[in-house]
Amino acid sequence: MVKIDVSMTLAEAVDAHPTMAREFERLGLDYCCGGGRTLAEACALIGIDPTAFVAELVARVPNGSDAPAWTTMSADVLVDHLEATHHRYLWDEMPRITALVDKIVAVHGVRHPELVDIAACYAQIRGDLEPHMLQEERALFPMIRELAASTELPSFHCGTLRNPISVMLSEHDAVGGLLARLRGLTNGYVAPTDGCASYLACFSAMAGLESDTHVHIHKENNVLFPLVVRLEAERTAMARA
């Protein structure tokens, strides 16, 4: 029997059973930036019965599924995974989506003026994510690797790593809000009936980007960052002993 109850947080549920991410996405439950909410609290926000929802989840999630590898990775291995998996995906996919957006705006913009807002929203998402990832790859992640490799507390120019982490958390919230706006502008990424193949491909790619970014942010907000804070606290305690 899958162990799920209404007191679990959304983040805990996804870490225990990654397939839950799809169920939460289906209902618009925010398990990345809002991963600290319990299932009961999240259900209350959207007006559904938590007990019935948990029973539905238990029925949908395969029994005996193992916790994903990211939940047991060390901090340095996890940042390598994030760069190789989610950062690489975004660096490759965002330019492709930009080209698709430009194409459908040029072809369909007159008949679908809402594409102007869609294009602007997507441009803002890309404009936020690119410098954010660079900051992680060039500054935060190297410091996390140094912390993980050290038996003592390294000296960082930012002081505690909680400082850059707080900035990353704030930026994640902003991107989460933009993704929600993009979903609304695209009617849940449903292309209009007169949409061409490029229109369909663009909206499908946007949906994929949203889904991957939610998992990406979840891994950082709810797994990596708490792990780094604990690791830094351990190094600090050792230094003071």
Short summary:
It is built from eight helices and no strands.
Structural notes for this entry:
- There is one protein chain.
- The protein has 241 residues and is mainly alpha-helical.
- The chain folds into 2 domains: 10-67, no CATH class; 70-240, no CATH class.
- Helix content is 71%, strand content 0%.
- It contains 8 helices and no strands.
- It has helices spanning 10-16, 20-27, 39-46, 50-60, 75-108, 114-149, 162-185, 197-240.
- The chain is globular and about 70 Å long.
- The protein starts with 9 loop residues before the first helix and ends with a helix.
- The model has no long low-confidence stretch (mean pLDDT 92).
Roughly what fraction of the amino acids lie in strands?
under 5%
How many strands, what sense, and barrel or not for the largest sheet?
Answer: none
Helical run tally: 8
Mean pLDDT: 92
Q: H/E series, N to C? A: HHHHHHHH
* Multimerization state: single chain
The SS-based structural class is mainly alpha
Specify the overall morphology: globular
Key terms for this structure?
241 residues, mainly alpha, 2 domains, 8 helices, 71% helix, 0% strand, globular
Helix and strand arrangement:
Layout: H1 10-16, H2 20-27, H3 39-46, H4 50-60, H5 75-108, H6 114-149, H7 162-185, H8 197-240
Helix pairs in contact: 3-4, 5-6, 5-8, 6-7, 7-8
